[in-house]
């Protein structure tokens, strides 16, 4: 198999291609169905500009511009479906089939190829790179026809931006090379797409250049030098504490997901277990949520959660696969940390045990409440009165240990949309996030253990397996925030476990993937350009 070397200590000037005579004109085919596709394209574009000075790029959504219904409403449809996982599951499973693949291939080529070819030609690119599954089969045909029309090779490459699993439409094997992020996707490309192994390059997912820089600066996260650099970054970020364990909580650029309940649960558990810590919450563009964290009465949160937990007599709801066994039914609450991940996820999907859209929280008094309920899990779980709360729980101040001897001092910091997320990941000891492939790759690049809390069925369930089987994280559904909190606290109180998770993450991390992919594509493109020039000169 063709494979890019991921050992990158070579200086930038040594990487500049000897084949380069000018910058490249790159056309990326992408769509804003989630932030990952555009982020991957822009990460690659940055590297092209660094490696091949004078390069320019454009992003083109050919499905929206030149597509036909229902494909040209992809962006709008994705926003709706991603918020309703049960509907997304149905659409994904139907479309990820051989029958649909053949139908879509024939339909799109018949109805859209001429318009797509015209759009691509209008940019006069040197190379076309697809970072979206719906922009492979038709562009491959268009690039082939443009090559014949112009008498010079127009190469096309696919960079698969999924990690643990991938949709069948990614695998149009007429591309010159296909870059994949994992062995799992490589196997899918060969089995589902019949892509020849020699065309597949295992390179990692392209992530932003900041992560390569921070990875180089951080080095070994667990070493004295790594810890010293971490504290330096915390100071630069002006975090309220720099010498305590730091948990980074993310929900995407819009600050979506059950962030509020997860943060409440972690605050309560950290205080209750006497763990001093900082919780940094990336609220994205959700300014309302950021203000809520700044104004929240944490004493009240602590009292209510502790009272509800004491009434249930709950000490640890963590479920490992070793305990449940392969035949057990895994409920939504609990955590997946060891083998048997795929079977567990499939059981959860078959039972509807997802964290959004029609799923439920198991309440402390045995009732069920949908996750659309505006109340928090404590309100849903037993309607604890104020008098009961005051009697059954010890009040503790958010930033103080004065009220009780063994309570943890916990700070909660909500921040808005940030562009320097790599620095926040360096500052963190644990990441709590949804199972997005880009976020997982970014965390691995910085040796950061990750607690996954939600995933889109089909598209992202393989990412859970990738993390758990890779040994650098676990999955706990965001419908059970206390299970998330308990597992995170367990990691923080077990330095050996946390170090193992970090070292496993480092093994999976490929911080220089974008640079390596850009280098390979650029070199091959110049080879094609030089060959075309020779043919034209001889004719």
TrEMBL record:
<protein>
    <recommendedName>
        <fullName>monogalactosyldiacylglycerol synthase</fullName>
        <ecNumber>2.4.1.46</ecNumber>
    </recommendedName>
</protein>
<feature type="region of interest" description="Disordered">
    <location>
        <begin position="365"/>
        <end position="402"/>
    </location>
</feature>
<dbReference type="InterPro" id="IPR007235">
    <property type="entry name" value="Glyco_trans_28_C"/>
</dbReference>
<dbReference type="InterPro" id="IPR050519">
    <property type="entry name" value="Glycosyltransf_28_UgtP"/>
</dbReference>
<dbReference type="Pfam" id="PF06925">
    <property type="entry name" value="MGDG_synth"/>
</dbReference>
<feature type="domain" description="Diacylglycerol glucosyltransferase N-terminal">
    <location>
        <begin position="37"/>
        <end position="207"/>
    </location>
</feature>
<keyword id="KW-0808">Transferase</keyword>
<feature type="compositionally biased region" description="Basic and acidic residues">
    <location>
        <begin position="369"/>
        <end position="378"/>
    </location>
</feature>
<dbReference type="GO" id="GO:0009247">
    <property type="term" value="P:glycolipid biosynthetic process"/>
</dbReference>
<dbReference type="GO" id="GO:0046509">
    <property type="term" value="F:1,2-diacylglycerol 3-beta-galactosyltransferase activity"/>
</dbReference>
<dbReference type="Pfam" id="PF04101">
    <property type="entry name" value="Glyco_tran_28_C"/>
</dbReference>
<keyword id="KW-0328">Glycosyltransferase</keyword>
<dbReference type="InterPro" id="IPR009695">
    <property type="entry name" value="Diacylglyc_glucosyltr_N"/>
</dbReference>
<dbReference type="GO" id="GO:0031969">
    <property type="term" value="C:chloroplast membrane"/>
</dbReference>
<feature type="domain" description="Glycosyl transferase family 28 C-terminal">
    <location>
        <begin position="408"/>
        <end position="511"/>
    </location>
</feature>
<comment type="similarity">
    <text>Belongs to the glycosyltransferase 28 family.</text>
</comment>
């Amino acid at each position: 198999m063709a494979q890019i070397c991921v050992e990158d200590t070579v200086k930038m000037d040594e990487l500049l291609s000897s084949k380069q005579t000018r910058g490249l004109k790159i056309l990326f085919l992408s769509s804003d169905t989630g932030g990952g596709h555009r982020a991957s394209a822009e990460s690659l574009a940055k590297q092209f500009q660094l490696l091949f000075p004078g390069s320019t790029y454009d992003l083109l959504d050919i499905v929206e511009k030149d597509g036909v219904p229902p494909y040209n409403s992809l962006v709008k449809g994705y926003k709706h479906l991603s918020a309703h996982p049960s509907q997304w599951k149905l659409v994904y499973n139907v479309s990820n089939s051989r029958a649909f693949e053949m139908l879509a291939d024939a339909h799109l080529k018949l109805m859209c190829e001429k318009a797509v070819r015209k759009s691509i030609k209008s940019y006069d690119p040197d190379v076309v790179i697809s970072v979206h599954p719906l922009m492979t089969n038709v562009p491959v045909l268009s690039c082939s026809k443009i090559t014949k029309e112009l008498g010079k090779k127009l190469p096309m490459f696919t960079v698969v931006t999924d990690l643990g699993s991938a949709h069948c439409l990614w695998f149009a094997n007429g591309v010159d090379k296909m870059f994949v992020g994992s062995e799992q996707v490589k196997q899918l490309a060969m089995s589902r797409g019949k892509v020849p192994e020699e065309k597949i390059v295992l390179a990692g997912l392209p992530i932003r250049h900041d992560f390569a820089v921070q990875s180089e600066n951080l080095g070994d996260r667990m070493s004295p030098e790594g810890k010293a650099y971490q504290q330096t970054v915390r100071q630069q970020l002006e975090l309220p504490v720099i010498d305590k364990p730091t948990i980074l909580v993310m929900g995407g650029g819009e600050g979506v997901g059950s962030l509020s309940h997860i943060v409440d649960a972690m605050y309560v558990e950290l205080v209750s277990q006497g763990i001093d810590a900082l919780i940094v919450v990336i609220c994205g563009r959700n300014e309302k949520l950021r203000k809520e964290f700044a104004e929240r009465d944490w004493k009240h949160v602590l009292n209510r959660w502790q009272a509800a937990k004491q009434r249930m007599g709950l000490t640890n709801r963590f479920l490992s696969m070793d305990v449940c066994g392969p035949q057990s039914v895994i409920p939504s609450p609990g955590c997946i940390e060891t083998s048997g991940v795929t079977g567990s996820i499939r059981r959860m999907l078959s039972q509807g045990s997802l964290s959004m859209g029609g799923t439920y929280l198991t309440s402390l008094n045995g009732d069920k409440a949908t996750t659309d309920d505006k109340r928090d899990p404590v309100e849903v779980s037993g309607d604890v009165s104020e008098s009961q709360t005051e009697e059954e729980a010890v009040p503790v101040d958010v930033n103080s240990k004065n009220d009780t001897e063994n309570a943890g001092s916990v700070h909660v910091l909500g921040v808005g949309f940030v562009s320097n997320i790599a620095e926040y990941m360096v500052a963190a000891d644990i990441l709590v996030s949804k199972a997005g492939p880009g976020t997982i790759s970014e965390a691995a690049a910085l040796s950061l253990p990750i607690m996954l809390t939600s995933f889109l069925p089909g598209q992202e369930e393989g990412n859970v397996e990738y993390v758990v089987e890779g040994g650098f994280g676990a999955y706990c559904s965001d419908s059970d925030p206390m299970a998330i909190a308990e597992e995170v606290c367990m990691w923080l109180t077990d330095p050996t476990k946390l170090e193992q998770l970090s070292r496993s993450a480092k093994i999976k991390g490929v911080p220089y993937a974008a640079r390596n992919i850009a280098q390979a594509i650029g070199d091959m493109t110049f080879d094609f350009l030089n060959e075309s020039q020779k043919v034209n000169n001889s004719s």
